[in-house]
Amino acid sequence: MKNQLLTALFILYTLVSYSQEPTEDKKIPEGEVYTSSQSVSINGKTINLDTETGTIQLRDENDQPIALFGFTHYKKSGETNNRPIVFAFNGGPLSASFWLHFGILGPKRVVINDPDYTKPAPYTIVNNEFSILDKADLVMLDPVGVGFSRPVGEAKWTDFWGVDQDVRSIGLFIDQFLIREGKYNSPKYLLGESYGTFRNAALVKHLQDKGIAMNGVIMVSAVFELQHLLFGPGDDIAYLTHFPTYAATAWYHDKVKNKGNSLESFLEEVRYFTENEYAPALLKGDRLSVSDKASMAQKLSDLTGLSPDYWIKANLRVTNSEFFQELMREEGETVGRLDSRFKGINEDLLSQNAFTDPQSDAISAPYIAAFKDYLYNDLNANKDLTYTTTASGREGFKWDWKHKGNVSWNAQTAISTLPDMTSAMKRNPNLKILILNGYYDLATVFYGVEYSINHMGLEPELRDNIIMKYYEAGHMMYTHLPSMEKFKKDVDQFIDETSKP
């Protein structure tokens, strides 16, 4: 009996020991990188590129694997490590970086029928003469949840899905990538679009606190304070920040009484009106007299094309979705959110709010299809791997909006990374910020950015480190050929000026 017991214990010990040994299936993957040679022609000069795409294993602060982090890296062939490097990403949250990648930054771009619908495949893919690759190496990042990026080991999706979680993981990637490439002593830049600018405002301080100071940060279609985008009850800020873009949209679609000499001169008048007449009227609330309300409704109508009666019914407060639907209701059309130059069929003429975004409908298919064709066939990515364009379809996806930089409030509508950027600039007076704004962007409105910048409490000499550029296009201004040319010029000049020793 004793021998049988000993035998049983030995077998049990052997089984337990064996089960604890790492098996092939339980090994944490290292990531896979696929290489290719690409080239781009800019200003008549061909630049040869060493390219890699795929994933690398991301480690936490204790060097434990937490993710396979997806990226595409373009490096000028034969170049030294002193060349500037740009880390770029889109927004969402969470969106993969193919928009910027195949729209303006990479060596190739897809041709869009701006500002109309692009016909189905075959799409036209061309050399991108507006790429930044003549000025800098480029790393396109796909945060965990999109692209090929995913958690590994003990990590979970929720470890990456949130304002601070996102900043931490991208900060880890940039730190480890700089070490990998020997680029710690090179000029360094962040470039983000949409939520990517909200991310950038916090990320630049996060990296700076860890000893990684950026030469510059490029903000494409920026937002730093969510309050400016959300029409909260009793909060008039979003109505004010959106109004100049309503007016710009009406100007573009010939819905205003007096267009003036140019869009810029028209918008100067709109800014003045917003600050000196519209804002005080909203501030009075229900104390505004009936006659003053009627007078204000007429002025709002003159600048936006919406009828005075509509403004009265809306209590002088029109949300963006209501505006999309109302501006061209009589023509049976609705205008775009991401770019209000785009028009689409109004699916319900009785609806108060727009059902869809014509700009998104018009460009999503060509961008996604053309990029994936390039990714799998030109960049040699593994065709057994799924490239996820957005995390919104992932089961259980939910973003954690809490931010440690907001010490005095917790409400989602008040989340802001502007204090982070303000602190980073005050602690690093050499930091330069380039902000690119689309006049017809109703997703992240230009006047909201101006409001934020004007409330940072910066001294004039530090305020001069923020450079604002404007485009007669929308959120993705790079769908518009003249704006592509201007984008290239503005970003080139910024990198040239900020990368000098």
Automatic annotation (TrEMBL):
GO MF, any single term: serine-type carboxypeptidase activity
Q: Does the keyword Coiled coil apply?
A: no
Record GO biological process: proteolysis
Q: Name one Pfam family in it.
A: Peptidase_S10
* InterPro entries attached to this UniProt entry: AB_hydrolase_fold, Peptidase_S10
Q: Which residues cross the membrane?
A: none
Taxonomy, superkingdom:
Bacteria
Q: What keywords does the record list, in alphabetical order?
A: Carboxypeptidase, Hydrolase, Protease
What protein am I looking at? Carboxypeptidase C (Cathepsin A)
Q: Which organism is it from?
A: Psychroflexus sediminis
